[in-house]
UniProtKB/TrEMBL annotation:
Keywords: Methyltransferase, S-adenosyl-L-methionine, Transferase. GO terms for molecular function: protein-lysine N-methyltransferase activity. Coiled coil: none annotated. The keyword Cell division does not apply. GO terms for biological process: methylation. InterPro entries: Rubisco_LSMT_subst-bd (IPR015353), Rubisco_LSMT_subst-bd_sf (IPR036464), SET_dom (IPR001214), SET_dom_sf (IPR046341), SET_RBCMT (IPR044431), SETD3_SETD6_MTase (IPR050600). Pfam families: Rubis-subs-bind, SET. CDD domains: SET_RBCMT. It comes from Paspalum notatum var. saurae. This is SET domain-containing protein. Residues 88-304 form the SET domain. Residues 1-22 are annotated as: Disordered.
Length: 503
């Protein structure tokens, strides 16, 4: 069999693995949701962008529970304790942040280790399959960790009570809060102003492309082992939704990715930095508190230094405005096609792995030097053509000399260029926020109406947070430009005064 590769989302790619034996996705599958392969049964077509706007997202899978269910969570806890989970100082309760969460039962001091989930209760790429024939086929085909675990989860879920993981699967949300479950119409309507829309579309494309690859290469060849009523696009969207929101990377286990029951009930707070890892001394998955907790108080971990858009993309929530110190928004910038040096500048960018359209993260604290370098290139005149490659290199994040990188004669124009881009984006956000209440007005039942209200609120919260960063950047840029131009006027006035004096 010829070896080839699959176009998977970067997070699906395991480190230092042998080449994958999957066919690359064709460019025409840019948005597989719109035109699913006809030979794949139309549960794939449920994701079609041409479906009516009022269509709900995938109706869910026959396993799992409502995301706020405490009954299934209590059953999970009993099963975990019976299976070797040590006595806990935390309990699952309904909470204000995250529907369900782990709450302190006793006083917990800063620096304490908690959880101690044994490896036998952790799902990894090496976990034993309840249906060993399915596992053997997947491993024979060298399926990477992400799609392997996604398929494992579906296989175990389909066995219901026959799987040792049935209590865990029953406690997983039937419909994860993930952008994987937003329709194309919802993405286009509610996230029209946010750059996270493109990432969501790409993520859905990657998941569906991965499913199509597995279907063509493996599932369709052995339908007895992989019946389509079990292994289909609906179940894969569900399993990948679970992975995006719950899979963790364990640094002390060589970066292995894993699902950790019980630990994955912990919610995220931007105010903490502690994370899950394998503790060699106790031989369990733990985290070390970086603050104290009182009884009844929700205990948090960090899901990583992620922007509000990234948290919505994977986890389905947006922190309150101004509470996320890691927040950022991508600013899209581009060369001007009317520029007489457009071709030369584009060639310089391409030589350094960039294109005429690039995005750079803006934070409340400022913007990256790469953005400034790109802006220098955009505004540079023809007589500076010998500097185009240097500017493109600095914009590419490959140069080690960027801290001192500067073109004082271009700084005002470069800052004005960035300001213009910011203000264009602010206008787009403001237009969306002013019209959001009138968007996607269609006939819907009570359940659809509730879902629509939730999505509108999430999108509104995200857009307000991202626009806040743009406003802050706008303020800084305007002040710097005002100071620069004020200084120039003062210098010109002084020069004219001296000239009159000497006359």
């Amino acid at each position: 069999m010829a070896t080839s590769t699959t176009a998977l989302h970067p997070q699906f790619r395991p480190p230092r693995r042998a080449p994958r034996q999957f066919r690359a996705l064709p460019p025409s599958s840019l948005y597989s949701l719109e035109r699913p392969r006809t030979r794949v049964s139309v549960r794939a077509s449920a994701a079609s962008a041409s479906a009516p706007a009022q269509r709900e997202a995938a109706s869910g899978v026959p396993w799992g529970c409502e995301i706020e269910s405490l009954e299934s969570a209590a059953s999970l806890e009993r099963w975990l304790v019976d299976s070797g989970l040590p006595e806990q100082r935390l309990a699952i309760q309904r909470v204000d942040v995250g529907e369900r969460g782990l709450v302190a039962l006793k006083n917990i001091r800063k620096g304490e280790k908690l959880l101690f989930v044994p490896p036998s209760l952790v799902i990894t790429a090496d976990s034993e399959w309840s249906c060993p024939e399915v596992g053997a086929v997947m491993k024979k085909n060298s399926v990477p960790d992400w799609p392997l675990i996604a398929t494992y989860l579906i296989s175990e879920a389909s066995l219901e009570g026959s799987s040792r993981w049935s209590s865990y699967i029953a406690a997983l949300p039937r419909q994860p809060y993930s952008l994987l479950y937003w329709t194309r119409a919802e993405l286009d309507t509610y996230l029209v102003a946010s750059p996270i829309r493109e990432r969501a579309i790409q993520r859905i494309t990657d998941v569906i492309g991965t499913y199509n690859d597995l279907h063509d290469r493996i599932f369709s060849k052995q339908p007895d082992l992989f019946p389509e009523e079990v292994y289909n696009i609906d179940t894969f969207l569900w399993s990948f939704g679970i992975l995006f929101s719950r899979l963790v990377r364990l640094p002390s286990m060589d970066g292995r990715v894993a699902l950790v029951p019980w630990a994955d009930m912990l919610n995220h707070s931007p105010e903490v930095e502690t994370f899950l890892d394998f503790d060699k001394s106790s031989q369990g998955i733990v985290f070390t508190t970086d603050r104290s907790y009182q009884p009844g108080e929700q205990v948090f971990i960090s899901y990583g230094k992620k922007s509000s858009g990234e948290l919505l993309l994977s986890y389905g929530f947006v922190p309150k405005e101004g509470t996320n110190p890691n927040d950022s928004v991508e600013l899209l910038v581009s060369l001007k096609k009317s520029d007489t040096c457009y071709k030369e500048k584009l060639q310089a960018l391409k030589r350094n792995g960039l294109s005429d359209y690039e995005s750079f993260p803006l934070r409340v604290t400022g913007w990256p030097v790469e953005l400034m370098a790109y802006a220098f290139l955009v505004v540079s005149p023809p007589e500076m053509s010998q500097c185009f490659d240097e500017m493109a290199l600095a914009a590419s994040n490959k140069s080690s000399s960027k801290p001192g990188f500067s073109y004082p004669e271009l700084e005002e124009q470069a800052l004005q260029f960035i300001l213009d881009c910011c203000e264009s984006n602010i206008t787009k956000y403001t237009k969306y926020l002013e019209g959001v209440d009138n968007s996607l007005q269609v006939s819907m039942n009570a359940k659809q109406a509730s879902r629509t209200l939730l999505l509108k609120q999430l999108a509104r919260d995200l857009c307000i947070s991202e626009r806040r960063i743009l406003y802050r950047t706008q303020f800084i840029l305007r002040r710097r430009l005002r100071d620069m131009r004020g200084g120039e006027l003062r210098a010109l006035s002084l020069f004219n005064g001296l000239r009159k004096l000497f006359k």
